[in-house]
Amino acid sequence: MLEGLRRVCETTDMAENKTKPTNVSAEEFLTAVEHPRRRADGLELLDMMRQITGQEAVMWGPTIVGFGTYHYKYESGREGDAAAVGFSPRKANLVLYGLTEGPDADRLLPDLGKHKTSAACLYVNKLDDVDRDVLAELIRAGYRHVTTEIHSP
Fold first, then answer.
1. Chain centroid offset of residue 2 CA
2. What is the mean pLDDT of each run of 10 residues along the chain (153 residues)?
3. pTM for this one?
4. Domains of the chain
C-alpha cells in the first residue's frame, strides 16, 4: 500500500500557482470596488506604487494589484512567479504585499502608524491611519529587496 502512495507522490506534479497575471485593467478593478474608502485608497496606492516602482500595474488573480515580478523557488521544489509588491482592497482592510520582509522593514514599521502584520502581509484599515512617507519608503525598500535579493533567475 505505501509503495503505491510513494509512486503517486513521486509522479504527481505540484499544484499550479493559482495567482497569475491577468489582462484585467487595475484601474477598472479599482473603480469597481464598492467601499468608497477602499476605492479611494486603492487608487492612491495604484499611483504611489506605480511611481515608486516605475512599473505598470498588473492584476494577479481577481483581486491583487501587483507591480514588477520575481521568480521564487522553495526548498520543496515548488517555484513560480509573483508580484514584487502589491496590494488588495479587501472588505476588512487594505492588504499590502512585499513590504514586510526587507532589511529596512523592522526599522520602518514602528513609525508607519496603525497597522498589523502577518507572515508576509501588511494590513492597514485606511491610508489616513499611516504616515505616507514611511509607507513610500517601505514600498521602495520592499520592491528593491524582492527584485534584487529574493529574485532568482
1. 39
2. 34 55 94 96 98 97 95 83 94 95 92 94 97 98 90 57
3. 0.85
4. 21-150 (3.90.1150.200)
